[in-house]
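Lab notebook, bench 4. Continuing the backlog of folding jobs that were queued last week. Each job is logged with the same field layout so the records can be merged later without manual cleanup. Today's entry covers 3-dehydrosphinganine reductase, a 262-residue chain. Filled in by technician R.K.

JOB TYPE: sequence-to-structure
TARGET: 3-dehydrosphinganine reductase
LENGTH: 262
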Amino acid sequence: MPRAAFITGGSSGIGLALARGLAAKGHDIALFARDPAKLQDAVRDLKAAHPDRIISGHPADVSVLDQLSPAVEAAIATHGAPEWAIANAGIAEPGLFVQQPIESFTRQMDVNYTGALHFAKLLVPAMPSGGHLVFVSSGAAFFGIFGYAAYAPTKFALRGLAEVLRVELAPAIQVTLAYPPDTDTPQLAAEAATKPAATKEITGEAGVWQPQDVADLIISRAAKGKFTVAPGFQMRALLGLHSVLAPLLRWWQAGIVRKHHK
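JOB STATUS: finished
OUTPUT FIELD FOLLOWS
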């Protein structure tokens, strides 16, 4: 079986941590990211840490099929079809619905959902039986969070796609859907620039994980054939009880929002 892992959003954060974890387990790695300089740095670091592995970097915007398609073809030419395909690329631009430009809504959907769709469509036909297709979603896929009107629907959509593909692709390809908590990444830091005060208070209750801890759990559970990965007590509670907890969470959020609107 091929021993390659293809990872979008692989130049930093959870994506790079996933690459480190899989390289340590003997996989060759193909990284996909928009920023060529950051991608080059990530490839160099992985090669230094794992000189016995084949590491390649492929600049591409996952939301642009004409960019991603040749990048995937180049990666397959280098590594063969991957055993692991991980759709991790994502952006979050919090803000108030009435204030955010429509371009922010479409940009987040293009990257977070359509980008993952592009990646899966390009790779699934080539993947071997026994392969792993992993989608990295978010706790925002469980219930609506104040300030994430543009972001949350992209993760709800990704959850829907993963749930369908779990059935359609079985048993040949194992689909896994990960719900990372807030994680100490450049993306989380960037969110602070536009995150409303009420959103900061709501999300601040959850605490912050380290990327490698999240990545290692995703790899471990996906390798065991698990469909969902929900790191931490809060994510596990949302996964198992989100329908029951949703009314309580809406009430709790409403109280915080009223306080900030006074």
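OBSERVATION: The beta strands are 4-8, 28-33, 55-59, 84-87, 131-136, 173-178, 228-229.
SIGNED: R.K.
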